[in-house]
Amino acid sequence: MGKTNDNLIVDGKRLDGRAFYEMRPITMRINAVENADGSAQVAFGNTEAIVAVYGPRKLFPRFLQENDRGIMRYRYNMAPFSCTDRIRPGNSRRGIEISKTSRLAFEPAAFLDDFPTTVVDVFTEILQADGSTRVTGINAASMAMAVAGVPMRDLVAACSVGKIQGQLIVDLNGIEDNNSEADVAVAMMPTKDRLTLLQMDGVLTKDELFTLLDKARENCMRIYDMQKAAIKNSFKQNPDAEAAVEADKGEMQ
Amino acid sequence: MMRRPIRRGGFRGRDMGGDRMGGRDRFENERPREEHDEHSEQPASDGGEAAELHEHAHRSIVIPGEYIDDKKGRKLGDDVYEEGEKVFAKVMGIPVANENEIKIIPMSGVYIPNISDNVIGVITEVGISGWTVDINSPYIAFMPVADGVDEFVDTNRTDISRFFDVGDALSCKISKVTKNKTTRVSMRAMGARKLLGGSLMKVKPVKIPRIIGKGGSMINMIKQRTGCVIYVGKNGVIWLRGDNKAEAIEAILTIERESHTSGLTDKISRMLEGLPGAVQPAAPTAQATAPVEAVPEPVVQDEEAEGEEHVERPKPGWEPENFPQR
After folding, report:
1. Helix (H, G, I), strand (E, B), or coil: what is residue B18?
2. Cβ-based neighbours of A164, under 8 Å, separated by 6 or more
3. How crowded is residue B266: how many other Cβ atoms within 10 Å of its Cβ?
């Protein structure tokens, strides 16, 4: 991939044929990792992330424990084979930074106070990278946490927006990402209309930024609807909630 | 061999390991109290019908952050939060909004200890003044000697591993949970006992109400059909012993897998039909066609009846190979 001098916009369309404010095709599914408490897999075009969530569970070493709240550990990792060049496995400066910002995107949403001294572990693996990997990871992680039963204020939906060759766009792919004038990652709690992550790389005017934020919000809403549908549809074959309610009434001991 | 008098709900010291027959006799006499016996009445039906009618019509699954209902002065139950007058879901699950409270029946999640829950724990550590108990939760429980043993124990002179040792399974009760979830368990409770032999299995804690069923109907049916002794902990740990253990485990796993489908009691009932060693139903109405009603009232053992033979009970399947080998 890397830098290119080619035109990124041909005949008013982007290189992959998308309009400026068009997202790539998105697929989502939950329960991608059998052993995890909750898991999800999300693909934005060629970008693909798989997330496993464990916990809340006991936190060791003990000095990391917080007596009044749980903590969250978020690991963002790109698989060595996820890019055209091999990525050196293990921690990298970039990986550590994205892990931290992604974690901060979830902390306002999760009720970690309910689980003092514990940890929620989120493992995000990027299987295939083609731009916007962190937001893909955040979208998957949010679904995985919901499936794991971690109490949350809202799902977190994320998308990327940016500017290429003077044109504002949404959902940057790999080549646009590498050649962008600006690149903004946005995560939000859609039903609360609150931002939880806002990262910008590059230069934008104030007006451009606000235009992009509006677009990002619009897209986050659409992504949220998809997340919601993906979670709910997976329980469609068992629509009989009455049975569970009945059983709960009989709960004893 | 000197024995101390054993009281119900107590345990046998480990120094008796060599005398298994003796242990067995006593065990059979001291039939384990079925933990639901004391609580198996149907929930109070005062206004039950009315409450059901008032329940929110919308019964589909909600995800975190979804609006459930306005609060309207009602109590907030588990896994919901309020913002102003509006109540939202904290976790994925089935919302229940009746005239008294708004809550979620969660579909997943770990076990968080709650006071007076009956749980099944496994001793992980023997300390000086008590035991550390793994209760299948992010929080480890502690059981002080005084809560584990009925008699006075001088901890300076006694190695308390003679009462419970590492690996022993206990049916016990959560006696105290502090704000930051430091947890204590106690054997001073109905049905609390050391679980000898048998097998432990784990299911998702949120599925436990379904496994027990309304008024204990499901678990009693499994017990009756398989003749197994089954203890269900609210923490998702289940202990079973008996000849048809494998079938009972299969049934429980089926319930866990298909917990959100209806007609499950019938299905399990068919699954377990005709097993040898099934307890003969006490009531003549007990037919497979109506298993929920058919389950006879569980035999509640009175204090006076302690030690009496109950002929309708099968002998607990004694499996020496499952007895903890030390």
Report:
1. coil
2. A8, A9, A14, A172, A176, A179, A180, A181
3. 15
Q: Is B272 in contact with B251 (CB distance < 8 Å)?
A: yes
User: A247 vs B261: CB contact, 8 Å cut-off?
Assistant: no
Nearest to A146 by CA among B300, B107, B291, B112: B107
Provide the residue ranges of all domains of chain B, joining segments of one domain with +.
14-33+112-195, 62-106, 198-322
Asked if B81 has any chain A CB less than 8 Å from its own CB, the reply is yes
The interface residues of chain B toward chain A in range 266-325, judged by CB-CB distance below 8 A, are: none
Cα angle: B37, vertex B243, A248; to 5 degrees = 35
Spell out which residues of chain A touch residue B214, defining contact as CB-CB under 8 Å. Answer: 246-247, 249-250
CB contact under 8 A, B180 and A116: yes
Residue (of A151, A232, A44) closest to B59 by Cα position: A232
Contact B140 A252 (CB under 8 A): no
pLDDT per position as a tens digit, B129-166: 999 999 999 999 999 999 999 999 998 999 999 999 99
- Tokens coding A106: 């979830």
Q: Taking Cα atoms as reference points, which of A139, A133, A114, A195 lies closest to residue A122?
A: A139
Q: CA A20 → CA A45, A170, A183, distances in Å?
A: 15, 7, 14
Element (H, E) at A220: helix A206-233
**Which residues of chain B are within 8 Å of residue A147 when distances are taken between CB atoms?**
92, 108
Decide if A147 and B92 are in contact by the 8 Å CB cutoff: yes
Tell me, yes or no, if B47 comes closer than 8 A to chain A by beta carbon. no
Q: Quick one: CA dihedral B78, A188, A13, A24, positive or negative?
A: negative
Task: Check if the beta carbon of residue A179 is closer than 8 Å to that of residue A8.
Answer: yes
Residue B44 pLDDT exceeds 50 = no
CATH 2.40.50.100 fits B62-106, yes or no: yes
> Which of A126, A98, A131, A104 has the alpha carbon at shortest distance from A195?
A104
Q: Is residue A40's pLDDT more than 50?
A: yes
- Confidence check: pLDDT of B322 > 60: no
- Residue A151 has its nearest CB partner, among B59, B90, B263, at B90
The residue of chain A nearest to residue B209, with distances taken between CA atoms, is A251
* CA–CA min distance A55, chain B (Å): 7
Distances (CA, A) of A158 to A44, A132, B75, B196: 11, 10, 34, 52
Q: Would you state the structure tokens that stand for residue B225, as one six-digit string?
A: 């059909």
**Position A17, amino acid:** G
Return the CATH class of domain A9-232: alpha beta
Domain boundaries, chain A: 9-232
* Cis geometry, peptide bond prior to residue B276 (ω within 30 degrees of 0): no
CATH of B198-322, one of 3.40.50.2000, 3.30.1370.10, 3.40.309.10, 3.20.20.140: 3.30.1370.10
Complex ipTM, two decimals?
A: 0.89
Contacts of A93 (CB under 8 A, 6+ apart): none
Is the peptide bond preceding residue B32 cis, with omega within 30 degrees of 0? no
Whether the CB of B107 is below 8 Å from some CB of chain A: the reply is yes
